[in-house]
Write a structure and sequence with these properties.
alpha/beta
Amino acid sequence: AGNESGDEGAKALAEALRHNSTLEALSLARNGIGGEGAKALAEALRHNTTLKRLLLGDNNIGVDGAKALAEALRHNTTLTKLNLYGTNIGVDGAKALAEALRHNTTLTELDVEHTNIGKDGAKALRDAKTDARQMGHDFDLHL
């Protein structure tokens, strides 16, 4: 964490993650990763079957990165923790994640503190948590 690998570094890691069969946790906090890097990681998550924890805190992945990660969560069945603390995902990013969480039953913890999601984004995520709980799945939500 904290080595400023940026989008290019994230893309290289994403390629490795596609074929990885052992790594269970990856911390890329404070690495200068933007939307493009998050998109590459999200694509890798669609194929990866071992990663359980992905920490992306304090990167500026933005709305587009959040939307890509949300789409990956619809397909990924192994990730249990996603940390997006301080990633500037905004209201639309939060809404995309909320919708994805209605389809994902493996995520048990989501951290979206300090992400500029506002009241509407927070409500969307709380509503998704309520819906998930009614379907028998619960997750920790850090707003």
